Amino acid sequence: MRIGIITGTGTYALPGFEEAVAEDVATAFGPARVTAGRVAGVEVLHLSRHGEGHPRLSNHVTHQANISALRERGAEAILAVTVCGAVDPALPLGSLVVFDDLHFLANRLADGSLCTLHTEPGAKGRAHWVFEGPFSAPLRQALLEGARGAGLEVRDGGTYGHVDGPRFNTRAEIRGLAACGVTHVSQTGGPEAVLCGEAGLPYALIV
């Protein structure tokens, strides 16, 4: 299985990445830079959301191009890492969490357009769909087992709250998210989960 790995703030390359070759993949939504290689004998496609040196803030991340490029390069599943703020006051800072739910009511990209790959009327594959499970159960289990196997404490489940960047949230906004059951807040995971769902790519997110 060829795995796509998306990394965020602070991680712009994978450690132990062998035979790594980077290329700009052309998509209907513009180019995205994907690096192919192997990690522990597994075929991996790495994509850095923000780019080397972090030139793209959260509102500049090209989510549609990123997911399209990984799919076109043959990714069969996507694991993503994010940096979050903790909304749940009982959660120690720095905790490792594998998310099991998503709060992304706006369902829009940073430019205000709808978060979808189906931008053309009549295009093949378009459909309404039920999105009860934004995170893949088998991938979640793999992340949990991997963390525990490495001797790390990890929380099984949490609700990722997607908000628009680049600014952080006010206290009132955080209280609103907490009232909805959100445990963590960040600015990039919502579109990835939705677009992977449309693309038929299992997706899991860890902080």
What are its keywords?
207 residues; alpha/beta; Rossmann fold; six-stranded mixed beta sheet; four-stranded mixed beta sheet; 12 strands; 21% helix; globular
Description:
This protein has 207 residues and is an alpha/beta fold. It has a single domain (3-206), classed as 3-Layer(aba) Sandwich (Rossmann fold), CATH 3.40.50.1580. The chain contains four helices and twelve strands, in the order E-E-E-E-H-E-E-E-E-H-E-E-H-E-H-E. The chain has helices at residues 63-72, 137-149, 171-179, 189-199; strands at residues 3-7, 18-25, 32-39, 42-48, 77-81, 85-86, 97-98, 101-103, 155-156, 159-162, 184-186, 203-206. The two termini are 23 Å apart.
Helix/sheet category: alpha/beta
**Residue windows where pLDDT falls under 50 for at least 5 positions:** none
Helix content, binned percent: 10-25%
Q: What is the CATH first-level class name?
A: Alpha Beta
Overall tally of domains: 1
